[in-house]
């Protein structure tokens, strides 16, 4: 077995510490190689052009970035093949990137759900003289938000 280590700074994966992980060769094409290394925040000049370096699977979406992922996982292929447009996109091992990564905070879906609840609450405050059902049926703003997407919002009033 050939010893491989992930070239991404702050990633500690090697074939010894993580033998179950896949390691992908960084492209030899100068432009793609430079792009991959810059994405990983590795100075392309610090690694010779002919040096074979690797990135571990943690930095890719393997199912989308490979051509034969299922065949490889099922044992029908000995070698994993990357798609031509594949680039490393995940850098959770780099502490300073965690706050900027999309997976680090609440998703957009959660944000919109909170926004909808805030709008419903505000509308209920405006229509406090009518019942909650009448408020929901008469308020055009709520109807526009709820009906098009088919969302059902349950509001529980605690006394």
UniProtKB/TrEMBL annotation:
It comes from the Eukaryota. Residues 1-91 form the THAP-type domain. It comes from Parnassius mnemosyne. The keyword Metal-binding applies. The keyword Metal-binding applies. One of its GO terms (molecular function) is DNA binding. SMART domains: THAP. This is THAP-type domain-containing protein. InterPro entries: THAP_Znf. Keywords: DNA-binding, Metal-binding, Zinc, Zinc-finger.
